[in-house]
Amino acid sequence: MQRRFILLAALCGGLVTPARAAAPDPDPFDGDPFKSYQWVDLKKAFLGAQARVQFDPRVKVQGPAFAEDPMNVPITVSADLAGVQRLIVLVDRNPIRKVLELQPLAAQPGVSFRFKLEQASPVRALAQTADGVWHVGGTWVDSSGGGCTVAGATRADGSWTQTLGQVSGRVFASGLPTSANAGDSAARLRVRIMHPMDTGLVNGIPAFFVSKLSVRDGADRELLRIQTFEPVSENPVFSFDFAKAPPGPLRIVGVDNNGNRILSTIE
User: 113: closest CA among 123, 105, 122?
Assistant: First the structure.
């Protein structure tokens, strides 16, 4: 009986195929260098599930290691790439993740500004080139938090009603490398729009923010187009670079989410 049992066991054992090695788990971060669990959802929500994406050191985000004032975090984004069609800024851990979207048109693919940060988070720039590929760069900004859920200074003291929609700005030599044409000098436009830029996350204060801006030259040619959202700091200041100084006078044309028009000329 014992011999028969051993024979049956041997026969049965011969029918068992070796277990295959388990397939490795897919990367939950989808290659994200920050290993942020929000990245996969961000990509799907703002770029689409089929978007072609690559992390690229040529897309740079410069900001402070720690946000001393989470309501006014300075940031500069740029893309050292040819043919950039769109540039988006996202913050993984903000309650409102999209900060702005820029179409550079005749400007350089970059912008400097300040934004509100709710908690420590990756801050990303995503540049789409003419071939449809999104190139992604970013930086980590630490913060004590709360930048999106506190009323701004002009909202607190009521002064925003006296300055709403006022624009100031100037064009000056930027010190950046000049364009290929002899005699051309790089230029920077810095423009400030007075607006409370309310996020809608403060009790009793609805969302109220500049939503669209366009810069046009003296011949009414559109130089750049920018969409801004609630996380941009109050009374926003934007800096844009040009390979050469655009012919003036420049016009700033825009609107906020309540339909208030923004219109100004910069000599």
Answer: 123
Measure the CA–CA gap between 190 and 176, rounded to whole angstroms: 15
Answer yes or no: are the C-beta atoms of 216 and 208 closer than 8 Å.
no
Q: What is the CATH code for 53-266?
A: 2.60.40.2470
pTM of the model: 0.87
What is the sign of the dihedral through the CA atoms of 194, 153, 70 and 198? negative
For residue 185, CA distances in Å to 111, 172, 181, 231 come to 18, 10, 9, 33
pLDDT digits (tens, 9 = 90+) for 74-90: 999 999 999 999 999 99
Can you tell me the distance from the alpha carbon of 161 to that of 228, in angstroms, rounded to the nearest whole number?
A: 20
